[in-house]
Amino acid sequence: MTDLVGVPQPAFVPPPRRLLALLAVAAARPLAGAGPRRIRAVLHLLRRGAVPATRQQAAAARQAVVTVSPRCAADRSCLQRSLATALLCRAWGTWPTWCTGVRTEPFRAHAWVAVGSEPVGEPAHERGYTPVITVPPLPLTGNRS
Questions:
Q1: Residue 73 and residue 100 in contact, taking contact as beta carbons nearer than 8 Å
Q2: Worst-scoring range by mean pLDDT, 71-75, 92-96, 100-104, 127-131?
Q3: Which of 3, 23, 39, 103 has the smallest set of CB atoms within 10 Å of its CB?
Q4: How many CB atoms lie within 10 A of CB 31?
Q5: Contact status, residue 58 vs residue 115, Cβ threshold 8 Å
């Protein structure tokens, strides 16, 4: 049996958001199979033009992703879940900080989204990772044309 991440199930996701969440999950799956350099390059490109996500926006995106995808709700699907969450935020015009990291006791790797330096929607046992790759939102510029 697959362990589910600490997210209340099921949650209601309105049909337009459900469709976007399903598309984000579908796009995240092949991206999760790419190497770290390609993932970082794609995310650096996609974050352009987005405003920084709020904690509520990132949490809503993560909730929508795990609601529409049992695969993304599984403990071992953190990479696809975090990518789908970032992609869904981007579809909404925002961008969280996408992160991957490691910890040593015991050794584990993990991927998540954060707002500022705080992980969004991660249970307590999934904290304490040292970030290795982060893709934060671009700084807002005063001259947006």
A1: no
A2: 127-131
A3: 3
A4: 18
A5: yes
